[in-house]
From TrEMBL:
Protein name (record): Sarcosine oxidase subunit delta
Gene3D superfamilies assigned to the protein according to its UniProt record, in alphabetical order: Folate-binding superfamily
One family name in Pfam for this protein: SoxD
Domain of life: Bacteria
Lineage of origin: Bacteria, Pseudomonadati, Pseudomonadota, Alphaproteobacteria, Hyphomicrobiales
Length: 87
């Protein structure tokens, strides 16, 4: 089992976490958002090969945070509370 670094609780088993989103995928603002832009926000993902930043939630403490992860070898980099240079 892999350990994920929660910035609030420290290293915890991966089963305590839930993937939230790709970091930097900002929700469009306003009521006048076109269908194409809204669909892009909901369904289009970069799906990078290699290093990426993602939003995760630690289900035990309920906190959301950004985590750096490599999609090839699954190595975990640092994790940051949202608002600490997180996208």
């Amino acid at each position: 089992m892999q350990l994920f670094p929660c910035p609030f609780c420290g290293p915890r088993p991966e089963t305590e976490f839930h993937y939230g989103a790709e970091a930097g995928n900002l929700r469009p603002d306003g009521a006048e958002v076109g269908a194409d832009r809204w669909a892009g926000y909901l369904y289009m993902r970069a799906n990078p090969k290699g290093a990426t930043r993602e939003i995760w939630v630690h289900m035990t403490c309920g906190e959301f945070f950004a985590m750096e992860r490599d999609t090839i070898d699954h190595k975990i980099g640092r994790s940051l509370a949202l608002g600490e240079n997180a996208e």
